[in-house]
Write a structure and sequence with these properties.
Ketoreductase domain-containing protein, globular, Rossmann fold, alpha/beta, two-stranded parallel ribbon, SDR_fam, 294 residues, KR_dom, 11 helices
Length: 294
């Protein structure tokens, strides 16, 4: 058992078999939080299940592509473990990578079911309890791609952009109930992103192969798992502080009502470039936009 009494908030974290989800589950437990970790196939990682439950947490099987009714049942069961869910972390996901033209429709649909509809259904499942208690946090894990799409990442980026749009709209809807919505924007971290079990590559057709930007991007992503500069344990600490309002980062985020939590200098650079481009566009088209009224 851990040395810190588990009397803190109840966290429900999806996608804990590796990467940011696992790092966050470990960190939250180390801070005395009560953690319900989930993954599609817990039997594949018995050592992780034993680790988390040995420290007082719980581990549940969860496939975010299940129906709304099935996900509701899972949440109700999870709420019965510790009495409630205070923090929902929508982290589970994978990436479909390739040129838009090379991506079959069924792959785009599957991507949206996992990265958007699953988190959306889980949000809807926990909100009634949070509204009743007038407190709660929902942390949706997006990506730099959700704000700054790159060639070869269009379908994945679209799924994250949809999650961001829903999160941004939901934030003022639930704020009066004491519920905070946060969007984590991680850059490149040394996780399973890009591995075969977390990514589905569409083999580029001839025109999209290297040196085309799509081919170059796919080559780069396949090298990321071993080369990414970001430490997932440090990202987990920032995510934890953002959700709890603790620490320097958490205080800054909560006091300033920040919705998007930029994690990683590479993400910050891309977001800064995007903001500057949007500013340039808005400035150039101000007169054009104003010319369309009756």
């Amino acid at each position: 058992m851990g040395t810190t009494p588990l009397t803190g908030a109840v966290w429900f974290i999806t996608g804990c078999s590796s990467g940011l989800g696992l790092s966050l589950a470990r960190y939250a437990l180390s801070q005395g939080q009560r953690v319900i970790a989930t993954s599609r196939n817990p039997s594949r990682t018995p050592e992780l299940l034993a680790e988390i439950e040995g420290q007082g947490g719980k581990w549940l099987a969860l496939d975010v592509t299940q129906s709304e009714e099935e996900l509701n049942a899972t949440i109700h069961g999870a709420e019965s473990i510790f009495g409630q869910i205070d923090v929902l972390v929508n982290n589970a996901g994978y990436c479909v990578l390739g040129a838009l033209e090379d991506t079959p429709d069924e792959e785009a649909v599957a991507q949206m079911r996992t990265n958007f509809l699953g988190p959306l259904r889980l949000m809807k499942a926990v909100l009634p309890g949070m509204r009743e208690r007038r407190s709660g946090v929902i942390l949706n894990v997006s990506s730099t791609q959700g704000l700054c799409p790159s060639p070869g990442c269009g379908i994945y980026a679209a799924s994250k952009a949809a999650l961001e749009a829903a999160s941004q709209a939901c934030s003022p809807e639930v704020a009066q109930f004491g519920i905070r919505i946060l969007i984590a924007e991680p850059g490149a971290f040394r996780t399973g992103f890009g591995h075969a079990n977390a990514a589905k590559y569409m083999i580029p057709s001839q025109d999209y192969s290297s040196p085309h930007p799509v081919g170059q991007r796919l080559d780069h992503i396949q090298r990321l798992p071993g080369l990414a500069p970001g430490d997932p344990d440090k990202a987990a600490r920032i995510m934890f502080e953002a959700a709890t309002g603790e620490g320097d980062a958490g205080s800054l985020i909560k006091e300033n009502g920040i919705l998007r939590v930029i994690i990683g200098p590479d993400c910050w650079k891309r977001v800064d470039e995007q903001v500057n481009e949007l500013r340039r566009t808005a400035d150039l088209l101000k007169t054009v936009a104003a010319s369309t009224n009756f």
